[in-house]
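As a warm-up, study this chain.
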Amino acid sequence: MTVNQQQVQHLILSASKQKPADLVIKNGRIIDVFNLEVITGDVAITDGRIVGIGRYEGKQEIDAQGRYIAPSFIDTHVHIESSMVTPPEFARVVLPHGITTVVTDPHEIANVSGADGIQYMLDASEGLPLDVRVMLPSCVPATQFENAGAVLTADKLRPFYAHPRVLGLAEVMDYPSVRQGDEDMTQKLTDALQHSGYLDGHGAGLDDDAVNVYRAAGIRTDHECVRAEEAKSRLSRGMYVMLREGSVAKDVQALAPVVTAHNARRCVFCTDDKHLDELITEGSVDYNVRLAIQCGIDPLTAIQMASLNAAECFGFMTKGAVAPGFDADLLLLDDLEQIKIHQVYRFGQLVAQEGQYVGPMLEIVAPPDNLLRTVHIQQINEQHLHMPLDGHHNCHIIGISPNSLITRHLIEEVDAVGGCFQPSTVNDQLKIAVVERHHDTGNIGLGIVKGFALTSGAIASTVAHDSHNLVVAGTNDRDMLLAIETLHRSGGGLAVIKEGQVLASLNLPLAGLISTARYEDVVKQLEMLHQALDQVNASKAFHPFVTLSFLCLPVIPELKLTDMGLFDFQSFRHISITQN
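Now compare it with the structure written out below.
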């Protein structure tokens, strides 16, 4: 929020009580995130900014009725595309959960549509009651071991730094390029350092020496800690640790014991990737806060982590506190244990009440045509899905770890028919394929996955991190082929197939990642997908589609699949399916 001299004078006159404030919230208990205590007083607001705490009169007055007045929450790292709705619809979903600011990385759509995708996300998030700040995708593609829809070099990213809502460089996940001082990577780092100094990390599987390299490069945050020891290591090296709770990666409980009175100020929350249905039912960062409190973190500390700490992490000087000089981005809470949100204010304007968005009508920005035609694949038949085993029946298998991005690298004996791998529902060994869908190369990576528990059919998605090729897992080639054809025809999305029939599908025409419908319609289609998952007996221990989408991400341990084949994180190279 910028101000001119006249506005400053107006703020001073309201603060000094020479003129009434625009809005005064009375009879509330104020969360003081600086001293970590609860204080009493009126909260006076003028021109969307808090001008005083004490006794004030306002043109409009609200009785908080003893509720807690807290700063609103900030999601420090989120991919809006993972909600599968456009930024205006995303705003309608998260504002009732007390989120008024997000720091987003549009690398999902950038991996499909490059700079055009980034520009769309900037345009579509303009003027929303949700403050959307953008970190530029650092790794498009994520690695050289897969084919994405675009390649974003430093010179293609640099013009975006002129945009007022662009903060810096998003999660740097290509550690080998950083370590080796790759010219383009170091130029990206340098550009961000010269612009703002905000660089996000992606330290999955990195040891202390590697974290030293990241810090030396200027990288300040990490959202990939899954163990307490990792979090403590990053904190000791001066990083901010983002405690993540998304649809797959659920790390708050594991990391909560690390948070102490001595280091809490370097801890913040994020969701990273969270499906629309879970955003609605569980919440966003408000869910992280509730979970942290359940894990023993003091409620005031948890609120501080979600507000003031997050604001300071990204240099938001007027966000994150209920205090004079800060934006009137506020929550009225019924309690401090369940964090039940009564009302949400953005710049002193009511935008959500009792779980419902009540702000201004938001229109979906129509995407350009080139973002709507992004699934380009050759004609595929069952022969393309055959997996010769060359006489070896001991194979490398991707083992799913429920509610974790990390997979297990298994070696198991598998069944074969005619010298080719035969999926086994008894052994929970399914076939998985990644079909390149950007450049019509004909690439199909094939592998074996364990953990989905499907007893029939196939599931498929064009949401496949980070290059977002088409990924399908199934019990038989026929249903897998129909799943591929279904998503090809629809221009992308999710599908569940059984015995040659499409049980349910969700069309995601925008880059194969995002629906152009209202979120209420998308939720209904997701419900039908979940019902279809029950019909193929998919595991209920985790979110099958979100888990499927991350089996293609080679920068996360241990074993993944790209369109170029099976990828071993430990050796950082492709390997054959069979164990020689």
